[in-house]
Design goal:
By secondary structure, the chain is an alpha/beta fold. It has 2 domains: about 170 residues, 3-Layer(aba) Sandwich (Peroxisomal Thiolase, Chain A, domain 1), CATH 3.40.47; about 150 residues, Thiolase/Chalcone synthase (Peroxisomal Thiolase, Chain A, domain 1, 3-Layer(aba) Sandwich). About 30% of the residues lie in helices and about 25% in strands. The relative contact order is 0.19.
Length: about 325
């Protein structure tokens, strides 16, 4: 049967490094100790003035295409997942498809917040499985949250960072290297807990929202700390059941990179070594919809995977949205 496999990955981040000490100085207190002890974050990358999110999408795409060994003109579809788009309209994908030279590719954006890279990958798989016109699909997770941060809000400003990751998926009939299974869920009752709530049709940006920074990212309510590990554990088990493999066979897990303790708890729940989960937040901070693809690209380039290894991606993001999928490499 027609299926999809990953044949190339890439990532790109800004050159500007923002260390924890920058926040110590700005906020007038020691946030570095807490960040390192609880989240392992030491530094992150932020876009400089004049840089655009699409710049990093293009670089990540070029690197993924180089690994895949195909040209830009061979891409049939581009899917970008971001909740920090270049514009409200048109799509960021339309910008990137042009700038990356994907002249034969259809394109669109989707937004499932930080679960986006996994949701975009699952969408690409289903396009390939369903329609023989899609031979090569590029998916991108893109995050430019530094543009939406209130620099005086210590609950958000120290965590979030910028970056983009890309993967190239190819149609295949291989029984040894392909997509295995997926699971997507939404817990919409948490839609008002965290987000950027001004700037859309419900609350257009006006003078008052600019004065009060309501057009920036806000943590409006505190999420139950047990929610992610419970959902992640159950969804990974569900994907393993659907994909007809045992959880113990998972070689690498690429997880939402917001909380190291939640990642470790999930690995413990699954009976997997903690280092099964590749973690990158110490160097890159929290890069949202780009994080899972970035972790995978680093893992691939560090030669952590062998042909036939099972990998899982597990993402969660504002909304709340959850997405999980598994591939045999």
């Amino acid at each position: 049967m027609r299926n999809a496999r990953i044949i190339g990955t890439g990532m790109a981040v800004p050159d500007r490094v923002v260390p924890n000490q920058w926040f110590n100085d700005r906020l007038g207190e020691d946030v570095d100790t807490w960040l390192q002890e609880n989240l392992t974050i030491k530094e992150r990358r932020w876009m400089s003035e004049g840089e655009k999110l699409s710049d990093f999408c293009v670089l990540a795409t070029e690197r993924a295409l180089e690994m895949a060994g195909i040209g830009a003109e061979e891409v049939d579809l581009l899917i970008i997942s971001t909740d920090t788009p270049e514009f409200i309209s048109p799509s960021t994908a339309s910008v990137v498809s042009y700038e990356a030279g994907l002249k034969n590719a259809a394109s669109f954006d989707l937004n499932t917040a930080c679960a986006g890279f996994v949701a975009a990958t699952d969408t690409a798989v289903n396009f390939i499985k369903a329609d023989q016109n899609y031979e090569h699909v590029v998916v991108i997770g893109a995050y430019g949250m530094s543009r939406y941060l209130n620099l005086d809000d210590k609950k958000t400003v120290t965590l979030f960072a910028d970056g983009a990751s890309a993967a190239v998926l190819k149609a295949t009939t291989s029984e040894t290297s392909h997509h295995l299974a997926s699971d997507m869920r939404t817990r919409g009752e948490y839609n008002d807990y965290m987000g950027i709530y001004h700037g859309g049709s419900a609350h257009p940006v006006d003078e008052e929202s600019l004065k009060t920074n309501m057009h920036k990212l806000v943590f409006a309510k505190k999420f139950p700390k047990e929610l992610n590990p419970i959902m992640w554990t159950d969804m990974i088990k569900t994907v393993a059941q659907r994909g007809r493999f045992d959880v113990s066979e998972i070689k690498r897990a690429y997880m939402t990179q917001i909380n190291i303790n939640q990642i470790w708890e999930t690995m413990d729940n699954l009976g997997l070594p903690r280092d099964t989960a590749t973690t990158i937040m110490s160097k890159y901070g929290y890069t949202g919809s780009a994080a899972i693809g970035m972790a995978m690209d680093i893992s691939v380039r560090d030669e952590e995977l062998n042909k036939g290894d099972i990998i899982v991606m597990m993402g969660s993001g504002g909304g709340l949205t959850f997405a999980c999928n598994a591939f045999r490499w």
